[in-house]
Write a structure and sequence with these properties.
This protein is an alpha+beta fold and 773 residues long. It has a domain at 531-649: Orthogonal Bundle (Penicillin amidase (Acylase) alpha subunit, N-terminal domain), CATH 1.10.1400. The protein is built from 23 helices and 29 strands. The strands form four sheets. The protein has an eleven-stranded mixed beta sheet. Strands 4, 5, 21, 24, 25, 26, 27 and 28 form an eight-stranded antiparallel beta sheet that branches.
Length: 773
């Protein structure tokens, strides 16, 4: 058979680190398909290609977590570097590497070698260097396999929630916590014996508080939500996934759909690739800098993921020895902190020394010698064996549900893992390191004297899961999804979860479909039906005030779809902002307002539907007044932002999708070199299946959502579809810089070609990598 004609010929390069020739075929959509002779070389190619397309993105992430920002940007970044280094693993790194499955380690070594090959290639060809380096005046770092063990990442976890609860308890106002972060399942607060809640202060958070580790370019800070982020938006940062069994599928094969909700506004958090080698055939989206594919499929099964909620951190309050701040009281005796020192290189200044304390491996995040007090953060990410950066490789190498169970043991971060295979099996497994707490529930800080120490981890086999469920489908959207018979009191996992709006809408649609199609999954990923809007419409006043009459009339005519061209959707969003603010002022005790900056949307709607004495002596009347006032205020805000003619209001005019370089706002040369990708209008919000969240305190621009989406036709892989915002490359010189932006805005899913025949049929270029002699 004649070879397909490839536009552009074959590019041939020799690279250090490759062990045998590697072929890379790029398809019409910019996806590279790697054909290697070994798994090591397949992952080598992934490291090389992601560095080709996203070097600055993965280099900055690596610098930040390695505590090497000051080296590139100067003294103002030293505090951030100190915090990052506090969260470096200080155990035996060689032993950690030796404990990994040999094949997984070999693939990781390949990935690291691939990144370094691109860095070395650019050193020889500086004209190809990403533009940022010439503008900012530094060079990319080379990688070391040991760094994948060492860097664990500064993680707040729920430490700030623990501090807030202790402060509320000290004021006798702990019940107000339910208004901000309701406990699910229902649970009663219990303060650990020996904890002085009145002594707990914000200062106990130490370096966990971003204010104590300032980064002048805040856009380069690790992904996080700030204190001004409404709680509903914080918890909307998650994902959707559903799996349909063959019995419920119109194809006669399982269907698996996944759309991870991550930050939108900067570089894409996903990069597409297809890796093949003997014993390996996997395609999907990876996270730049993390070896392997996060969401996608092998030749045998599809896999997707959403955030599961696990309480993986605890603050421990330590008593330090008077006159000797290097010792703390633990299990009946004074123990010495483990102390390590590092030298921090600083651009334009002398190096600085960093001194880091640990209590039994737990980073000491704050210390107050005047009170003989220190606070350590217990976090699963600092435990021996918590090598998340290798876990995705293990999942990619698995062959079936049984071998995945072994791979899951490496997986640290809390995840709902969705599965569907070519034999028609479907499964859901919750994974992630889950600490055993024998004497407390993790909702408050605990004394660090040893009585409340963790007693191990809950094994994966004891975590919630299903395999081939009778219903023929399952879904997850970060909601509280512990099975009714799960022994959550004995195996505490979490009490804080996302509101169930997205899941409930997904479930409503899936239950209504006897035979689900690929097109149905695509439509559901772009569904903008709002369940909070339905709830509000049930509460509209029968006799609104004159100021609220127009808003009431418009909303009554609305179908509750948060469409980009909808006037009612714009009005609804303005009303909800006003209602949340007025409800908070009405129901949160005055003495707790400083600790409860936002109210939980689900809890607010529940109280408004069944008003109680928290609203005053006449709850129904107070409820009606709140809603009437919010309708009037929302209408006024809509006029302010949308104009005086309601016929011209469109939610998408406010809800824009703008993407810019993270340093564009602070560096004119960067802004000039990297043109903004902007102008797109969007529907949806943080509660709709098509999650397009925003922070109303900063405007209505889309701040998070599904920049990557895929739907897998399990077994007929070439029928699968995907989208990636805004494109594969972060280099404006590349045609892949923004090519997916219009496709993503229109919701037009693209083919995910997988078979060799389909890939060759749609190939546009070829690259041949050979080992450098």
């Amino acid at each position: 058979m004649a070879q397909p004609r490839i536009r552009g010929g074959v590019k041939r390069i020799a690279l250090e680190g490759a062990r045998a020739p590697i072929e890379i075929v790029e398809d019409e959509l910019g996806v590279p398909h790697v054909r290697a002779a070994s798994k090591h070389d397949a992952f080598f190619a992934q490291g090389y290609l992601v560095a080709r397309d996203r070097l600055f993105q993965l280099d900055i992430d690596h610098r930040r977590e390695m505590g090497r920002m000051a080296e590139a940007f100067g003294p103002a970044f030293v505090a951030a570097d100190r915090a990052a280094r506090l969260f470096h693993y200080r155990g035996d790194i060689d032993a950690e590497l030796a404990a990994l499955p040999a094949e997984v380690l070999e693939c990781a070594r390949g990935y690291v070698a691939g990144v370094n090959a691109r860095v070395d290639e650019l050193a020889d060809n500086p004209a190809d260097m990403p533009l940022e380096y010439g503008i900012l005046g530094f060079e990319p770092l080379r990688w070391d396999i040991r760094d994948l063990v060492k860097r664990r990442g500064v993680g707040m976890g729920d430490a700030d929630d623990e501090v807030r609860r202790a402060q509320l308890q000290a004021r006798g106002l702990i019940d107000a916590e339910q208004l901000m972060m309701p406990l699910r399942p229902a649970w009663s607060f219990s303060v650990p014996g020996g904890l002085d809640v009145a002594a707990v202060r914000d200062a106990d958070l130490g370096v966990l508080d971003p204010a104590n580790r300032p980064m002048p370019y805040d856009s380069l800070q690790e992904p996080r939500t700030g204190p001004d982020q409404p709680e509903g938006d914080r918890f909307a940062l998650g994902s959707n996934a559903w799996t349909i069994a063959a019995s419920r599928s119109a194809t006669g094969r399982p269907i698996l759909a996944n759309d991870p909700h991550l930050g939108i506004g900067g570089a894409s958090p996903r990069h597409m690739i297809h890796l093949t080698a003997p014993g390996l055939d996997v395609m999907g989206a990876g996270a730049p800098g993390l070896p392997g594919i996060m969401q996608g499929h092998t030749d045998r099964f599809a896999f997707g993921r959403t955030n599961f909620h696990i309480d993986q951190t605890d603050l421990f309050v330590l008593k330090t020895r008077e006159g000797n701040g290097d010792q703390y009281w633990h299990k009946g005796k004074w123990r010495a902190f483990e102390i390590f020192e590092d030298e921090i290189a600083v651009k334009g200044a002398a190096p600085e020394r960093g001194r880091f304390r640990y209590a039994d491996g737990r980073p000491v995040v704050s210390q107050d010698p005047s009170r003989n007090r220190a606070v350590a953060l217990a976090t699963v990410s600092m435990l021996p064996g918590a090598n998340q950066r290798f876990a995705i490789i293990a999942i990619n190498l698995a062959k079936d549900w049984a071998t995945l169970q072994e791979a899951f043991k490496l997986h640290v971060s809390p995840t709902n893992l969705h599965y569907a295979d070519i034999n028609g099996n479907t499964g859901w497994q919750t994974i992630g390191f889950t600490p055993r707490r024998s004497k407390h529930d993790g909702l408050f800080p605990a004394p660090g004297d040893g009585d409340y120490d963790w007693t191990g981890l809950i094994p994966v086999k004891d975590m919630p899961s299903v395999y081939n469920p009778r219903e023929g489908w399952f879904a997850s959207a970060n909601e509280m999804n512990l099975p009714a018979d799960y022994p959550y009191r004995e195996r505490i996992i979490s009490f804080t979860w996302s509101d169930p709006f997205r899941y409930n809408r997904v479930a409503e649609v899936l239950r209504s479909q006897s035979k689900h199609r690929i097109e149905d999954s695509i439509a559901l990923q772009h569904d903008v039906q709002s369940l909070p809007a339905r709830a509000l419409l049930q509460l509209l006043p029968a006799n609104p005030s004159p100021a609220a009459a127009a808003a009431t009339a418009m909303l009554r005519r609305w179908d509750c779809g948060i469409e980009a061209d909808s006037a009612a959707a714009l009005l609804f969003e303005m009303v909800m902002v006003a209602l949340s603010a007025s409800f908070r002022e009405r129901v949160v005790p005055a003495a707790a307002l400083d600790l409860i900056p936002t109210v939980n949307l689900s809890e607010m709607l529940r109280i408004l539907a069944a008003p109680d004495q928290r609203l005053g002596d006449d709850p129904p009347a107070a409820r009606d007044a709140l809603i009437d006032g919010a309708l009037a205020a929302g209408w006024a805000k809509a006029v302010e932002l949308g104009g005086s003619d309601p016929a011209e209001w469109q939610w998408g005019n406010l809800h824009r999708v703008n993407i810019a370089h993270p340093l564009a706002s602070v560096n004119k040369a960067i802004a000039a070199a990297f043109p903004k990708i902007e102008g797109g209008r969007s529907g949806g919000d943080g509660t709709t299946p098509m999650a397009r969240g925003f922070n109303s305190r900063r405007g209505f621009q889309v701040s998070h959502g599904a920049s990557f989406l895929f739907v897998a036709d399990v077994g007929a892989w070439d029928n699968s579809r995907y989208l990636l915002l805004p494109g594969q490359s972060a280099d404006p010189r590349s045609p892949r810089y923004r090519d997916f932006y219009p496709k993503w805005l229109e919701g037009v899913m693209q083919p995910m070609w997988f078979s060799k025949a389909a890939v060759d049929r749609h190939a546009v270029s070829r690259m041949a990598i050979t080992p450098k002699l």
